Amino acid sequence: AKEFHEQFKVTYTAFVGLAALAHLFVIAANPWW
């Protein structure tokens, strides 16, 4: 199940990266925050 764990890690990293970008976009769109 090592391949599955590697794939999960890549997917999780991509998800966290997208979430971080989304939060940064919201913060940039709301400078008052």
From TrEMBL:
Residues 1-33 form the Antenna complex alpha/beta subunit domain. It is a single-pass type II membrane protein. Belongs to the antenna complex beta subunit family. One of its GO terms (biological process) is photosynthesis, light reaction. InterPro entries: Antenna_a/b, Antenna_beta_dom_sf, Light-harvesting_complex. It comes from the Bacteria. The chain crosses the membrane at residues 12-32. The lineage of its organism: Bacteria, Pseudomonadati, Pseudomonadota, Gammaproteobacteria, Chromatiales. Antenna complexes are light-harvesting systems, which transfer the excitation energy to the reaction centers. Pfam families: LHC. It is found in: Cell inner membrane. The keyword Protein biosynthesis does not apply. One of its GO terms (molecular function) is bacteriochlorophyll binding. The keyword Cytoplasm does not apply. GO terms for cellular component: plasma membrane; plasma membrane light-harvesting complex. Keywords: Antenna complex, Bacteriochlorophyll, Cell membrane, Chlorophyll, Chromophore, Light-harvesting polypeptide, Magnesium, Membrane, Metal-binding, Transmembrane, Transmembrane helix. This is Light-harvesting protein.
